[in-house]
């Protein structure tokens, strides 16, 4: 008999663990999606197929306002975070290694490490002081807070793209009379494009589903879609929440698919 | 026509690293490259030839010394302000641009009018015979085609000097031979000074007007291919360019004395005699004025046959004879023969 190569899939218990993992990951999501089509008021007892919760959600002014707010915050924060992340990525890859470089990485990626609740409380306190001093109550605080924690998510794909770029292209541009700005504008930026778009989409998705920081920073009447849903949970839960979640899920899946298509290595 | 030199490097030193760990990639190199010549920097990898090219292009700044292009000092100017262009070993074509956009890149950066850019790109692509591929993306081209695009791109802005960093090393043999001819043709047609870097001595000999041989960060010898091949100044140059025999000698009345006692006439100075394998005459043993030798073995190379000869003092000598139509050079292992050096072929060198 031919000797078999070591294959992790043949270890005892492999299938059991795999199935258990899939069940835990996906059954709740399938349940959530299924009950968004429930005809009744329950999120646990099935009583026939219906699209009523989708039409309800569509007609709900509070949902509409929260959705628009979420999209405005997520797009603004994504643009802001991506701009900062692009500059940071160029700053950390397009120069010789310098002292304290690790410290810079840590500083940029701080939001990945500091517990979100700590950031939320800290922002609430600081923005409270600023609100009192300036009287400004707008969405600016939420946009700024979201942009801040989105920076590392935008930074990582952009930096990966920069590090994978052939440096001789930039040398060639300089050799062909491009000034440093022209070199950036005509060579680095176009080649960085997919990385920047990927970073922006990731930042957008991260901003879109944030609850903790939003809950602490928002002023009255500034509910985003996730905080609105959280508010609904405290009252009577209907499959409307399922319907909104399903739509949010679809948007996220579309964006993340696009993200992977953009960042996957070319053959 | 200006009468100044195309390139002048004066006492250039390039050190990498700090303090005791510093390595001199270029160690006090001075060289002058004339207008319109095909100049080759030849040497093994790590000899400093690419470093010198990068100093001329402006990708690196010298630790000390001076670089002049067309009579003007450019030592500390960035690459975009030097009138030279480079053909990179990796080609470094812009993958997001078409072939024509790659070729027109430099002119676009210089802010030339659109019509001129289009016209020049078309003319350059015609020069390298790629006009039919103008609209392609570079990833769709073969290695040889990419090479031509890289050439057209570097020639488009009509640089004072074209720098070529081992541009043919990624091509297969047949394509390489084609491109060698192509490069010579382009240089003749454009009249631009070419500075060509290679480690391939045959490429250097066949293409260059003059060659600068480099080793260990120093320029060993500068001269025409014939100079370098027939009159190498030291052992490195003699052994790097072509094949040669080295025999230790001592001064003697009327010439130099070989280890076997024979006295031969040789030009030059030094304690080592060099003789190229093809510059000997093999005759019958005992003929007057010849060195006695014994054939150790024969190696058939097709166009010629190499004979390894043993001199009486044990020194080995390689001779090369052209193969006759029969393929049999007419020698046998163990045979005793006489060796005569062609007049002027034996030269003395310092180690």
If you had to describe this structure to a student in words, what would you say it looks like?
Chain A has helices at 14-35, 52-59, 61-93, 101-108, 110-113, 116-134, 140-164, 167-175, 180-208, 212-217, 225-234, 239-263. By secondary structure, chain A is mainly alpha-helical. Chain A has a single domain, classed as MetI-like (MetI-like fold, Orthogonal Bundle). The longest helix of chain A is centred in the N-terminal third of the chain and has 33 residues, at 61-93. Chain A is globular. In chain A, 31% of the residues are buried. The mean pLDDT of chain A is 87. Chain B is an alpha+beta fold. Chain B starts with 6 loop residues before the first strand and ends with a strand. In chain B, the strands form 4 sheets. A 6-stranded mixed sheet of chain B has the order 6-7-8-3-9-10, sandwiched between helices. The longest helix of chain B is centred in the middle third of the chain and has 18 residues, at 173-190. Chain B is built from 8 helices and 21 strands. Chain B has helices at 49-57, 99-109, 114-127, 143-155, 173-190, 201-207, 225-230, 235-240, and strands at residues 7-16, 23-33, 38-42, 64-69, 72-73, 84-87, 161-165, 193-198, 210-215, 218-223, 245-252, 255-258, 263-264, 267-268, 272-275, 280-284, 291-300, 304-310, 316-322, 336-341, 347-349. The radius of gyration of chain B is 25 Å and the shape is elongated.
Entry summary:
The complex is a heterodimer of chains A (267) and B (351). By secondary structure, chain A is an all-alpha fold.
The geometry of chain B reads as elongated
Give, in order, the helices and strands of chain B.
Answer: EEEHEEEHHHEHEHEEHHEEEEEEEEEEE
Low-confidence stretches of chain A: none
Can you tell me the CATH class of chain A? Mainly Alpha
Q: Indicate how many domains the architecture of chain A comprises.
A: 1
Topology of this structure?
The complex is a heterodimer of chains A (267) and B (351).
Chain A lengths: L13 H22 L16 H8 L1 H33 L7 H8 L1 H4 L2 H19 L5 H25 L2 H9 L4 H29 L3 H6 L7 H10 L4 H25 L4
Helix pairs in contact in A: 2-12, 3-7, 3-9, 7-9, 8-9, 9-12
Chain B lengths: L6 E10 L6 E11 L4 E5 L6 H9 L6 E6 L2 E2 L10 E4 L11 H11 L4 H14 L15 H13 L5 E5 L7 H18 L2 E6 L2 H7 L2 E6 L2 E6 L1 H6 L4 H6 L4 E8 L2 E4 L4 E2 L2 E2 L3 E4 L4 E5 L6 E10 L3 E7 L5 E7 L13 E6 L5 E3 L2
Helix pairs in contact in B: 2-3, 2-4, 3-4
């Amino acid at each position: 008999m031919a000797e078999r190569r070591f294959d992790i899939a043949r270890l005892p218990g492999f299938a059991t663990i795999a199935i258990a993992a899939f069940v835990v990951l996906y059954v709740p999501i399938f349940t959530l999606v299924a009950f968004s089509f429930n005809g009744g008021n329950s999120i646990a007892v099935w009583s026939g197929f219906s699209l009523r919760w989708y039409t309800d959600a569509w007609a709900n002014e509070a949902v509409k306002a929260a959705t628009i707010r979420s999209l405005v915050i997520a797009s603004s924060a994504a643009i802001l975070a991506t701009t900062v992340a692009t500059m940071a990525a160029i700053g950390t890859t397009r120069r010789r290694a310098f002292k304290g470089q690790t410290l810079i990485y840590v500083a940029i990626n701080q939001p990945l490490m500091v517990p979100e609740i700590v950031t939320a409380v800290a922002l609430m306190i600081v923005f409270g002081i600023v609100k009192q001093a300036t009287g400004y109550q707008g969405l600016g605080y939420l946009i700024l807070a979201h942009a801040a924690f989105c920076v590392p998510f935008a930074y990582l794909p952009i930096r990966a793209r920069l590090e994978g770029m052939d440096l001789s292209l930039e040398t060639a541009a300089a050799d062909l009379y491009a000034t440093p700005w022209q070199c950036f504008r005509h060579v680095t930026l176009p080649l960085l494009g997919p990385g920047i778009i990927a970073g922006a989409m990731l930042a957008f998705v991260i901003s879109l589903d944030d609850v903790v920081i939003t809950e602490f920073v928002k002023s009255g009447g500034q509910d985003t879609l996730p905080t609105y849903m959280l508010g609904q949970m405290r009252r009577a839960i209907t499959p409307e929440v399922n319907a909104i979640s399903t739509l949010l899920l679809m948007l996220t899946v579309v964006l993340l698919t696009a993200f992977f298509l953009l960042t996957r290595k070319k053959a | 026509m200006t009468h100044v030199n195309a390139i002048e490097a004066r006492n250039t030193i390039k050190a990498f690293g700090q303090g005791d760990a510093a390595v001199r990639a270029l160690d006090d190199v001075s060289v002058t490259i004339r207008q319109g010549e095909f100049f080759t920097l030849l040497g093994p990898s790590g000899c400093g030839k690419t470093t010198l090219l990068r100093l001329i292009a402006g990708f690196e700044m010298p630790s000390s010394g001076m670089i002049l292009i067309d009579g003007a000092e450019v030592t500390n100017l960035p690459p975009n302000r030097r009138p030279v262009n480079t053909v990179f070993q990796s080609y470094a074509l812009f993958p997001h641009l078409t072939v024509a956009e790659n070729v027109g890149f430099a002119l676009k950066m210089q802010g030339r009018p659109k019509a001129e850019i289009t016209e020049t790109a078309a003319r350059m692509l015609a020069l390298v015979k790629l006009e039919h591929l103008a609209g392609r993306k570079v990833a769709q081209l073969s290695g040889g085609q990419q090479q031509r695009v890289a050439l057209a791109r570097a020639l488009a802005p009509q640089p004072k000097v074209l720098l070529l960093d081992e541009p043919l090393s990624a091509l297969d043999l047949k394509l390489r031979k084609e491109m060698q001819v192509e490069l010579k043709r382009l240089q003749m047609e454009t009249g631009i000074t070419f500075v060509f870097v290679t480690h391939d001595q045959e490429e250097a000999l066949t293409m260059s007007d003059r060659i600068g041989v480099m080793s260990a960060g120093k320029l060993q010898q500068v001269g025409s291919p014939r100079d370098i091949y027939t009159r190498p100044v030291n052992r490195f140059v003699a052994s790097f360019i072509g094949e040669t025999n080295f025999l230790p000698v001592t001064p003697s009345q009327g010439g130099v004395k070989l280890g076997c006692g024979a006295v031969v006439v040789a030009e030059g100075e030094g304690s080592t005699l060099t003789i190229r394998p093809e510059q000997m005459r093999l005759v019958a043993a005992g003929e007057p004025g010849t060195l006695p030798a014994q054939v150790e073995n024969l190696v058939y190379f097709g166009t010629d046959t190499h004979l390894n000869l043993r001199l009486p003092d044990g020194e080995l000598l390689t001779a090369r004879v052209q193969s006759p139509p029969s393929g049999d050079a007419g020698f046998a292992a163990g045979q005793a023969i006489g060796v005569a050096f062609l007049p002027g072929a034996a030269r003395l060198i310092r180690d």
